[in-house]
Amino acid sequence: MSRDDLVRLGRAGRPWEFLGVAAAALAIAPMDHGIRFLAAANLARLGLKTIAQEMLDRVPESVRHHPDITALSAALSGLPNDQLPPSTREQLLRGNLDVLAERGTDLRGLIASWRERAAEVECFRCLDGNIVRRVAHSPKGDLRVLAWWRDDRGRAAESAKSLRRADRSFADTAVVEGIDPPWTLIEARKATEADYIGHRPRLWVVQAEPTEAMEGLSMADLREALRDPRMEFLIGGGATGQLRDSLRAGLEQALPAVLLFSPGVKTPASPALSDMLNAVTQEQCDELERLHASVWARYADRDLAYWHARYTRPQGRPLRVLIPVSRFSTFVRHAAADLAGALRRAGCQAEVLQEPDDHSRLSAVAYARALDDLDPDLVVSINIPRHQLRNVFPENLPFVCWLQDAMPHLFDERAGKSQGPMDFLAGYLFGELFSKFGYPRDRAFPSTVVADGAKFHPAAVAPSLADRFRCDIAFVSHHSESPDAMHQRLAREAPEPSIREAFERLRPDVHAAVSRCDVFPPSRALRTSVIERLRETLGAEPPERTVSLVLRLYAMPLADRVLRHEMVGWAADLSHRRGLRLHLYGKGWDKHATFREFARGTLDHSEELRAAYQCASVNLHTSISALVHQRVLECALSGGVTLVRFQRDAFAGPKTSVQLALLDLPADIDEPDRLGYVIADHPRAMSLTALYARIGAPLADHVFWIPKARAEALRRDAFAHSIDQDANQVLGDLGEFSFAAADRLAMLVDRALTNPTWRTAASKMQARFPRAHLTYDSFVGRLFESVRKGLAGGAA
User: Fold this and answer.
1) Is 795 part of any domain?
2) Nearest-angstrom CA–CA distance, 792 and 782
3) Which of 332, 600, 636, 655 gives 767 a disulfide partner, CB atoms 3.0 to 4.6 angstroms apart?
4) Does a structural domain hold residue 580?
5) Nearest to 208 by CA among 243, 247, 234
6) What pLDDT sits at residue 796?
């Protein structure tokens, strides 16, 4: 590199790159004061005022008053102190070692020898977080430092990016070799902090030589990282063996996928960590192969006839049910536990398979071992069909996919057409699954929402809980992320630029649909908008799968969020005006810019939640898709009352119930394209008409018309209509408990606060139907009835 090139580099604003070359140049030409000045300027850019001033002090007296040097000297005087003396380092070291000792690794006996070494080194803090070290008592202005000029902090942050892959919703677990300098472990921890699903992967930090660890532990306050239960620190000659033994004991969990190195490692772990990880990975593969062979051989001969006999004549052996779930969905985790409880009450042996903690992910070995140990007669998987787990569960094992959410992997022809005679669907039976994606209708039964009647009951809560949870209005939801933040997150996660552009164009349409949701069905408005915006961005007619995904993954969820937060805004305004107590329970409300004052933290899905429901004068709920929700049922069973924000799609359930009932009867009027039923002659039609009028949408005709195309679709898809989709039936009276505007909400809240008799009657009314039909115990009965029927039909 020529001197001109070096000067250009020195002026390029890349100090780490320049200073290493400048050190070599000044060693050859120590009297090149132009390069020395550039070195001082680059040192100043890093905040290294001590060494920068030393560089200027070596400039001849004759040029020290040059304006550039004067300006640089003035700038240096304004920089913070950059020196990290041994006393400060020892204070940091002792604090870190005390915490490390609490976790079982005590290196405090090495402090005296470390102190001797520390006296031989000078350390300087950079503004970017790096620390530069040089031999103590080095010649002033000497750029030759112990660690060559390099941006260790920046490199650590860059390497930590490998822990998060664009195609994953979670960060990878990793091993970090070396603590000196500590930036690699700090950046790895930062990169893997909890995301929105709550996963915080385990990180192992390995250091073969304890004295090297002492250096890194003296550079920064690491006490928070050292206390973090997901951080494992293995220090000493046996560190590799300790890590190997730990990983071998947990083959049911995903092994570390990334190995990171701190640049200060002088004594590598032995055996090499990469070799050890490869060996343990092979052991995991071998164990999976062994378990897989055992399980597949056991199920090979279990045909439909075998299962029909097993389900109808269990011969004293309880049916065994495996429920694999992810702990990173609050609802799914609680639903699995409640389902397992109901199965056990029904005499089954039920086990829930999930991650043991927030830092782990299950490996295929976990599933195979659970199958081998339990030998289940049924698998109930929430939201995940067998197609997604085709190498995990044998085809000859009855499998129920319990649909709770519109997950993208469901809307796939491959998933629908892969359904075999032992695959069943339960839960939310989204119509397009059957009409567009090939799922069979004959092994599906609807049951969109249930609650645990054993956990949620109306008995009085303990006085201490009553005092804690008593309030006027309560809302229980983890959907605290603002609509704006949610839009930005979903846009970032969009799989391709055209979809991201569609999201941006859809955003105002979503708000418009919500603003009119009390007079026009939002589902229709949103679907129309999705198709139009996709046409614009794709320049062609969008595939149905793309329409479904954008509708289910962006438009509907964002509309739901807008709807909920508007409702909370009404409640907050009412609370401010009337001096009412509003409690918001769930994750993240304490961080909400507007609603944080009402945040009351998260609740255990047990007695705390029951108390919160019962002790609020009213609870709130709304949804863009369906007003019947698990929380509504839990609240009713607990002795609470729920007020629901109405939107026009809420009529769909009650209307479908009446249409199905009428189609069992001869039509009063049969026209070419529609069937008519005189409302006055049919009590259920009269009841629905009255509901329309009370909500503010009266029917103009005395005849209840059903288009023949709709009648045909209803008869074809009647199997998908669930008793719990009728919000009027579930709540007892939708017109009594719903609101579409802030003034109606205020009136209902006043009624609950001033009329205890009304509130008591309302609670009993809302609990009547759920207690009889919508508990986990009743769901288990319907589940086995459906599976037995399907197996019997297949066997026949």
Assistant:
1) no
2) 15
3) 636
4) yes
5) 234
6) 58
